[in-house]
Structures are given as C-alpha cells and as structure tokens.
Specification:
Elements: H1 2-8, H2 26-35, H3 46-53, E1 55-67, E2 73-81, E3 87-91, E4 94-96, E5 100-101, E6 111-124, E7 132-140, E8 146-155, E9 161-172, H4 177-186, E10 209-224, E11 242-245
Parallel strand pairs: 9-11
Antiparallel strand pairs: 1-6, 1-10, 2-4, 2-5, 2-7, 3-6, 7-8, 9-10
C-alpha cells in the first residue's frame, strides 16, 4: 500500500526528508554578539538630533498684491536664493501666481490682488547666505506677448513674528534709445540673463534700471534651535509685528 501511495503522489516528501532546524552554536552566538547594540549605548531622541544638526527657519504667508500703474493683467513668479550651507526641508522653492487684473473694489485703482500662499522651511548651521525671495512680475503687450514688468528681491525676516513687506520693483533699461526702439518693435524688452541677479551683488553696479511699481507680502516667521548655534531668537526692544518698506 505504501508503494502505491508513493506512485500516486510522487511530490509528497517523506517524513525523513523534512530538514532539521539547526540549533545555534557557539560560533553563531559570537557572530550575533559582535553586531548587537552595546548595553551602554546612549539613545538620542529625534528632537535632540535635530537640535544639533542645524537651526530651522520656517516661513509661511502669502504674496498679497502688487501695484503697477498702467498695466491691466499681471502675474508673479517667486523663488528663493540661499547660501551653500542652507537646504530646503519642506515646501516649494518656486511658484507662479494666477493672472490678476485690476479690481474696482480694491483700495487702489492700480492694485492687482494675488493672495498666493507661500510656505517653506529652511535648515542651516551658518547664517551666511540667509535666504532671499526673488520676485519677477510678467504681463502681456498689445500683441499678447509675455514681457517682464519688474524685478524685486529681499532677505527673509530673521526675527520670529508677523511681517508685512512692501518691495519696490524695477526693470533694466536698454543701453541706448536705438536698442530700446528695436526691443519695442520686436517685443523683446530688456531682461536679466540671470533671473536671480537682483539677489546677487556681482554685476549690479553696471546695470541701469528704472523703478516701476511695488509688491506687498505678508510673512509669518518661526525659528528653532537658534541659540544652540550662537544666535538670538528674541528681538530686543522691538515688536513681533513689523511693517517694512524696501
């Protein structure tokens, strides 16, 4: 009978063919001990690790509005420029607002309301290269071509609290009247080759610009672990809420 069962189910293993479980030997336990965690090891919490890995700068708020006399529809592009020791741990490094038109119900006839949200978190061990926000405002000419209307840049506030910024905008000028006329005919107004030039010092002294309009921002700033790296987190003799015109 056993022979017939084996012919019907040849794949069924015999009891004697089941592999035996190897018990740990002295050599196996020695190998495990070499890779085990020492009993005197110090367990570091996540907050303690973050405290010593760098201070944190968190910025949230909105790109509220802009005033550009003579222009009907505009949108804004923003991005951040920072030093080599800085990194972004959360949020978007750049963004585009929607196209806004002048509102009759606004406080100013030339005001264009965006109310575009901004949220980003930075981390660093060095205050050098403190992050800057770079703004570029674009519009459309009579032929529906995209043209630059203004540039602006400013350092993010270093004091925790609510801040309202009013940034002046400018745009580069042509090197001559002939170049200005040719640019107007071709629909190519003067622009910076490097879009981040407003946040840099190199090359700005040789550039001629014309002031035009301004942008309003509302930013909420929070900092962490600044004291661990030798920086003060509390303003001296100032309020947490500030209004700055740049």
């Amino acid at each position: 009978d056993s022979d017939s069962d084996e012919n019907e189910n040849p794949a069924r293993p015999r009891v004697s063919e089941v592999p035996e479980v190897a018990l740990p030997t002295k050599s196996n336990t020695d190998t495990f001990d070499r890779f085990s965690i020492p009993t005197n090891a110090k367990v570091v919490s996540r907050e303690e690790h973050e405290r010593h890995s760098g201070f944190v700068l968190t910025v949230s708020g909105q790109l509220q509005s802009g005033e550009f006399p003579g222009w009907e529809s505009l949108y804004c592009h923003y991005n951040f420029v920072m030093g080599p020791d800085w990194s972004i741990t959360d949020g978007l490094e750049e963004g585009y607002t929607q196209v806004a038109t002048r509102s009759v119900s606004a406080s100013s006839e030339d005001e264009l309301v965006w109310n575009f949200p901004i949220s980003i978190t930075f981390k660093s061990t060095n205050a050098f290269g403190w992050p800057q926000i770079v703004l570029r405002v674009y519009g459309f000419d009579h032929f529906n071509r995209q043209v630059i209307r203004g540039y602006s840049a400013a350092h993010l506030p270093s004091i925790a609290g609510q801040h309202r910024l009013k940034l002046r905008c400018f745009r580069p000028m042509a090197s001559s009247k002939m170049m200005e006329f040719q640019g107007w005919m071709a629909g190519q107004r003067p622009e910076f080759v490097d879009d981040d030039l407003p946040a840099k010092a190199d090359g700005r002294k040789a550039c001629r610009v014309r002031s035009r309009g301004h942008i309003a921002l509302q930013l909420n700033v929070a900092t962490r672990f600044m004291k661990e790296f030798g920086y003060s987190e509390e303003p001296r003799g100032t309020h947490a809420q500030s209004v700055t015109h740049l």
